[in-house]
Amino acid sequence: MNRLRRAVVPLLLASGLAVLLPACLSSSDVNCSNATVRCGDTCVATQTDSKNCGSCGSACNQGNVCVGGSCVCPSGAVTCNGTCTFLAGDPNNCGACGNVCGAGNLCSGGSCFNCSGGDGGLLGECQLSLLAGCIATPNSGMREVTFDTTYTLTLSPVEAPGGATFPDALGFLGANVLYSDHDSASILEVPLSSLTQKSAETLPLTNPTTGSVAGTTQVLTEASGTGSRVYAMASSINTLRIFDSPLPPDAGSIALPGGGVGALGLVSSGGFAFDPGSFPEPFARLNDGTSNAVFVPLNVGDEVVRLDVTHPAAVAQVDSYDLTAAVASLPGGGKLADGGMYAASPTQAILRNGKVYVALNVLRYRPDFHADYGPGLVVVIDPSKTGAAAVTPLPLDPTECQNVEWVARVPASGGDQMLVSCSGARTYDANFNITSVDNSALVLLGPGDQRLAAWVPSLTAGASPPSVGRAIPIGSRVYVADETASRLYVVELVNNAFVERVGYLDGGTPPQLCDTFLIDLQPVPLLP
Amino acid sequence: MAWAQTQAPVALPPVDVPLPGAPPPPESPVQRDPTGLVTVIDVAGRSTETTTVGALVGEAPGITVQQSGGLGQSESLTLRGAASTGVLVLLDGIPINGVGGIADLSLVPLASVDRVEVLRGGAGARYGAGALGGVVNLVSRTSAVPSVTADVTGGSFGTVYGSSSAAGPALGGGGLVEVHAGHSDGDFTYTYDPLAGTPASHPQTLTRENNQATWAGGLTKAAWSVDGWQLGTLAQVTWLSRGLAGPVDAPSPDAHQDVYRLLTGARLSRGFASGADTTVRLDVRGDWSSLRGGFFGTGEDDRWWQATLSWDGSLPVGAHRLSASASVGLSLANAASAQPRWAVTSASVQDEWRLAGGTVAVVPSLRLDQAGPFVGLSPKLGALWSLPAGFALQANVGQSFRIPSFLELYIPTGTQLANPDLQPETATFVDGGASVSGGPGSLRVAGFAAQYRDLIVYEYQPPLASRPYNLGTSNAWGMELEGRLQPAPWFEVGGSYALLFTEDIRDIPAYFGKEVPYRPRHRGTARLAVGPEWLRLHATVRGQSSMWVNRTNTIALAGRVMLDAGVDVRILRHPSLTLSLWGTNLTGVEARDLDAYPLPGRALYATLSVRFGEPTPTAPPSSVVPEAIP
């Protein structure tokens, strides 16, 4: 049982009993287990509770945590001037006590980076902002999330270009956002410097023979010769669209409409149509000189297909990888108690160390659109092999991880490490609001895909249960989106362990990025 | 046998005239709304020209038919820009809009319908809540003379259907029994190319799957005349079982729906020497819908019952004809998630005031409707000026409202949630028309304007659901033209055209000022029928312009023009045996409707019809302009 549940369960039980048996028990009748003592009307684990460490009311401060009933610095931290400090990321004690990086500089990995001077950092640590895509009525659009070296987050207002509805997905081409607009099923070109403007050029993604909207789930830009190539996964109409631009991926902002048309010069160069109803998801890209391919998970099809994208006008499927055997390899043969089978339901693929890693929901939908969830599962596809022989299941601890939605390589580790977002087994109310989440965590895997650590988002009384969503690692930090309430947590990787920096711990509150729903979260590119 | 009244047989003159001596029943818009703009379309005489009632209803100006594609698949109507929930559809005066507020015309068999009457414009004052854009009254089959008929049709896409009827004296009165059944595989082909317009375009020809439908049903009517009272009964049963193929981008191989419907009614009416009349009727309706497979999993079952006891009466008083009505009823539904129960009542008054020697009629009316917790008033003022030489001017202004349906309020369906806080939609309208009729034909031109407010729209509620809210507001205005010419019995030409402008005035910048989706700017039909009774050729051209499919007006479906044509050959006279060869969409136009639903291409059919009994009196011609009430 994970740490959060150890802390939460006694509180839940206590509050539940208080609700159910108000007439039967009074505070004088509270009996606490051997591991806890009574503080007021609650049972507290004084061995680990930072607010009641060793005894009721003894709070740990100055960054200390409660271990064995004593306040100590967390693992990996040292004491500088009586305060617990992580030398890897403290700009006032960077790498050593008293080593100050200076105003506007970032400390990462124990080194100072002059971000204001254009220093990108060793591993992109100076990337200081994210772009969130929000669905709300009103207030659909984008907002920039900027963070300083002390983990202080600043949210810009939600903005969108005139005439835009909510975004399905966000991408970038240089200093310009590629805003996949839902209602018009087209990509709008929006300068980062002015999120309320757009160029006159729009890229239609719709199925022109049916008029269906695209439901885009991914917009990916890469260098192509001297220009750029943009891939847009229009999942609802089962197509991958490919566009080419003469501008390089680090192009500056397009001119605003007032000063000229401004456009990225994107033209359609081809794509691929998947089988109707297969619902392709965000793909992994492999272009290593030998293969020029994308690996696309098909959510309703339980397979991954490999496409050769060398010629956009003639994209061809060259292989497919059935995922049902991976599900069948799970305990119980991938079956539920009633004999029904879980579906693999792949949701995303990434490339890491030459292999393709695919996130799988592993679930069975019920008639009421709720679901039964199986154990957490990732599959590894070896591109050097074909078909079933290429697929290796990578099961995760089901008591810690269910419903894998995202995977992300950790650049700061050179790709040796990978993050797995386990969104957890969810229950919904009649209005499809999440009411409970079990076994949701962010899991860190090492070079051999071994589990190194897991983090469960902190929670406070009255807050909705978090569901770990997309995780964006930047330097040693990881920005984690919560799928229940569009909150943003920040954790730091320290010595292969997670340390929560922004959350509910110590009386904090993770910021809510969107009024209703966070549809996408992307790091803003760092440009020269 | 007429539904409402018996009538003495009338020797018809050789020229084609409307059925004489048979005033329309009280629920007919011709009778109930004397100043309203009404179009009447013959169905019984054109059953070998199309496969669906909706195609014929769509010939009335202002109507747009929304189709899922294929015989037995859903067909709904919009009218003057009002959504399908705002068009009240009646069968012999019994509302047939479903539990979600939409009338599915695929549940109305062609074999059971005699004609269609379309009243355009808000009709709440005369028909109650739900008629924002207008009313469509389907008049069931009748037979003025004893007869036995049978017909069978076979054709494209595995289609076969047939019907049989018998009419004549029964139980001291007159009766009609009609039964029908049919099946269509619906497996037409269509082009699928989601990358059309790109260098990777690769059109594929696919076959529509899980698009089959099977149906059966029957109609029985009876009428008696006792001591001056006319008693009539009606019972109709319908069963439809169909696959739900879904949109082509996300087809469903196993979604399925079964629908059962029962309509029954009894009417007691009488006319008095004073010119007064009174009618009491009891209508009961039951709907069962069962959804399985696809998104519906193990199933969703809905049951819905409505029962209404109503009274209509009118009384001439000098230059006035006063009309009143009242009704009381129950509406109840049974679904897994909710079982709403409503009492439903209404009361209305109308004064038809004749002026200027009876050439001018000023008709104010007012109706109060109550359904569950909702109460609303629908006022209307109409005027009719009958001019010499068959000319007439009509004008109307009024307000209507629509009460949210059980589905919208209480019963979630799949990921479409319900919202018990919904309020009624409202409409304010004005229209006017000029017409000329008589002799060989008729012609009418009309203009209208309407504003629809508090429209219920489903808003995306991420990540899975959508939820209805009263957020829509729109304007609609335009022009309607219809005419018919029959200079000789063997030559008939007619048609209609509607010009429709819509404007979304909802306060969201992305939508404000844009056109309302699925409302084509231009829509029209033209029909030609030539030949003697024993060899009749007919052709109908139906067209509509392109239309936006999204609220930002950036995605459009192409316009389309389709040709239906055929020939009816009478092989024998006694009994009457006719062979019809006909087809729809003969030029094979590929078209789409709604959200990625392809429509069938070219279809060919053959029908063999036999009739035993006296010759049928000539049916009223289509698109007739109602004569001014004397």
Describe, in plain words, how this protein is organized in 3D.
- The complex is a heterodimer of chains A (528) and B (630).
- With 528 residues, chain A is mainly β.
- Chain A is built from two helices and 40 strands.
- In chain A, strands 11-10-9-40 form a four-stranded antiparallel β-sheet, with no helix packed on it. Chain A has a four-stranded antiparallel β-sheet with strand order 12-13-14-15, with no helix packed on it.
- The radius of gyration of chain A is 24 Å and the shape is globular.
- The two termini of chain A are 46 Å apart.
- Chain B is built from four helices and 35 strands.
- The longest helix of chain B has 5 residues, at 53-57.
- With 630 residues, chain B is mainly β.
- Chain B has helices at residues 29-32, 53-57, 124-127, 406-409, and strands spanning 37-42, 63-67, 75-79, 87-91, 94-95, 113-120, 134-140, 147-155, 159-170, 173-184, 189-192, 204-207, 213-226, 229-243, 256-271, 277-292, 300-317, 320-335, 341-355, 360-371, 374-386, 391-402, 425-438, 441-461, 465-488, 491-504, 522-530, 535-544, 547-548, 556-557, 560-572, 576-584, 592-593, 597-598, 603-613.
- Chain B is 3% helix and 57% strand.
- Chain B has a 22-stranded antiparallel beta barrel.
- In chain B, a hairpin with a 4-residue loop joins β19 (341-355) and β20 (360-371).
- Chain B starts with 28 loop residues before the first helix and ends in a 17-residue tail after the last strand.
- Chains A and B meet through β18 and β19 of A and β24 and β30 of B.
Features of this protein?
heterodimer; A: 528 residues; mainly beta; four-stranded antiparallel β-sheet; 2 helices; 40% strand; disordered N terminus; B: 630 residues; 22-stranded antiparallel beta barrel; five-stranded mixed β-sheet; 35 strands; 57% strand
Provide a compact summary of the structure.
Helices cover 4% and strands 40% of the residues of chain A. With 528 residues, chain A is mainly β. Chain A has a four-stranded antiparallel β-sheet with strand order 11-10-9-40, with no helix packed on it. Chain A has a four-stranded antiparallel β-sheet with strand order 12-13-14-15, with no helix packed on it. In chain A, strands 16-17-18-19 form a four-stranded antiparallel β-sheet, with no helix packed on it.
